[in-house]
Amino acid sequence: MTEHEFYAAIKGLAKGNKDMLRAIYDAYGRLIYTIVYDVVKNREDAEDVTSEFFIKLIRVAGTYQKKTSHRAWLIQIARNMAIDLLRKRGHEYLLHETEDAPQDQLEEGGTVETASTVEEHVVLAEDMRQAMQTLSDREREVLDLKLVGDLKFREIAKTLGQPLGTVTWLYNQGIKKLRRCLREYGTTE
């Protein structure tokens, strides 16, 4: 969704057009879930906060200012809601359930894939899941914001309240770890 399309949708939502919520959800539902999941580390809580996020979006739609990147604005709201949930629970640390981590669907656009193609996707997804487990929480969060959230490093630094140098270092460290792990998995077959 472009900045212009989002601006039209959020203004429509602010005026009471609930169909605009569907458009925003379709464009950003997965992103919001991923951002929330990175913070709360629990599928059920991530689903609850994501649902609450879109309900809240109806209430705050009128506060969006066009000069702000809409993706950064959405991510900041979602992240703050997830952090609020953890604070509400007294900073309890939730166990990371890897089997609950968001997974990409293997079926592409409703087309039927061959068994070997599906097998390749499964192997790649499992290798990627294992590689992602080698990342620290901070590295994973930066990578998600950059790759899934499509934010610039400055926006990530602002969102996380971290210096720009720290954010770029975490990103580079995470990418190096992923490359190293995927190379190792590729050579063990």
UniProtKB/TrEMBL annotation:
<dbReference type="Pfam" id="PF04545">
    <property type="entry name" value="Sigma70_r4"/>
</dbReference>
<keyword id="KW-0805">Transcription regulation</keyword>
<keyword id="KW-0731">Sigma factor</keyword>
<dbReference type="InterPro" id="IPR014284">
    <property type="entry name" value="RNA_pol_sigma-70_dom"/>
</dbReference>
<dbReference type="GO" id="GO:0016987">
    <property type="term" value="F:sigma factor activity"/>
</dbReference>
<dbReference type="InterPro" id="IPR007630">
    <property type="entry name" value="RNA_pol_sigma70_r4"/>
</dbReference>
<feature type="domain" description="RNA polymerase sigma-70 region 2">
    <location>
        <begin position="24"/>
        <end position="90"/>
    </location>
</feature>
<dbReference type="InterPro" id="IPR013324">
    <property type="entry name" value="RNA_pol_sigma_r3/r4-like"/>
</dbReference>
<dbReference type="InterPro" id="IPR039425">
    <property type="entry name" value="RNA_pol_sigma-70-like"/>
</dbReference>
<dbReference type="InterPro" id="IPR036388">
    <property type="entry name" value="WH-like_DNA-bd_sf"/>
</dbReference>
<dbReference type="GO" id="GO:0003677">
    <property type="term" value="F:DNA binding"/>
</dbReference>
<keyword id="KW-0804">Transcription</keyword>
<comment type="similarity">
    <text>Belongs to the sigma-70 factor family. ECF subfamily.</text>
</comment>
<protein>
    <submittedName>
        <fullName>RNA polymerase sigma factor</fullName>
    </submittedName>
</protein>
<dbReference type="Pfam" id="PF04542">
    <property type="entry name" value="Sigma70_r2"/>
</dbReference>
<dbReference type="InterPro" id="IPR013325">
    <property type="entry name" value="RNA_pol_sigma_r2"/>
</dbReference>
<keyword id="KW-0238">DNA-binding</keyword>
<feature type="domain" description="RNA polymerase sigma-70 region 4">
    <location>
        <begin position="131"/>
        <end position="179"/>
    </location>
</feature>
<dbReference type="GO" id="GO:0006352">
    <property type="term" value="P:DNA-templated transcription initiation"/>
</dbReference>
<dbReference type="InterPro" id="IPR007627">
    <property type="entry name" value="RNA_pol_sigma70_r2"/>
</dbReference>
